[in-house]
Design brief:
Blueprint (H helix, E strand, L loop, with lengths): L6 E5 L1 H18 L7 E7 L3 H10 L4 E9 L12 E4 L9 E9 L3 H11 L5 E9 L12 E5 L5 E2 L15 E4 L2
Parallel strand pairs: 2-3, 2-5, 5-6, 6-7
Antiparallel strand pairs: 1-9, 3-4, 8-9
Bound molecules: 1-O-pyrophosphono-5-O-phosphono-alpha-D-ribofuranose (PRP) and guanine (GUN).
């Protein structure tokens, strides 16, 4: 048993598995028959759990790479100052690219990352986010593949942290303090 208290489950482990499986099918369908391997980019740290499950649900040949960005620090409020902490090892020029994120909230992180990646001239650039909070959007960003839209609650688990904790929860929950 996971030894965490004061957490209300929002998306159970079973529901998470169903969402990932559906997204895997949608992505595989979208990139059916592409000529070169799909480049799947996980945004660290939050996406590492979802990314690990998602790539195994995608049937398209792919290469995986990671980029580390941070905007929330250890808090629950975006600093809006998105920093690239670690860049890609892969050149994405002329490639089909899928960016994987755990959550799109205000859209600030993704909008900066997408601009940065667009400047490297990929053949195509699409976005897959496990969660999205549309009511919080400050900047419109495309979410081509969306796991689930959720209300304005600060969520944890399945890669999402509060002060770097709770990323290992196998479900998504709300911290009751
Ligand atoms: O749409 P936004 O309001 O910009 O919020 C979304 C971002 O916030 C979280 O990252 P965080 O900065 O907490 O870093 P982490 O991935 O290391 O948890 C999350 O992983 C997204 O990248
Ligand atoms: N852990 C966590 N990080 C976020 N970053 C943006 N929104 C959220 C959220 O609801 N939870």
């Amino acid at each position: 048993m996971h030894q965490f208290e004061n957490i209300e489950v929002m998306i159970s482990q079973e529901e998470v598995a169903g969402i990932v499986s559906r997204l895997g099918k949608e992505v595989s369908e979208e990139y059916k028959g592409i000529s070169e391997d799909l480049v799947v980019i996980g945004l660290l740290r939050g996406s590492f759990v979802f990314m690990a499950d998602l790539v195994r649900a995608i049937e398209t040949p792919l290469v995986a790479d990671f980029m580390a960005v941070s905007s929330y620090g250890d808090g629950t409020v975006s600093t809006r100052d998105v920093k690239v902490v670690m860049d890609l090892n892969t050149s994405i020029e002329g490639r089909d690219v899928l960016v994987v994120e755990d959550i799109v909230d205000t859209g600030n992180t993704f909008s900066k990352v997408l601009t940065m990646l667009e400047n490297r001239s990929p053949r195509s650039l699409k976005v897959c986010s496990f969660l999205s909070k549309p009511s919080r959007r400050e900047i419109e960003v495309p979410v081509d593949f969306c796991g689930k839209e959720i209300p304005d609650e600060f969520v944890i688990g399945y890669g999402l942290d509060y002060a770097q904790k709770y990323r290992n929860l196998p479900y998504v929950g709300i911290l009751k303090v």
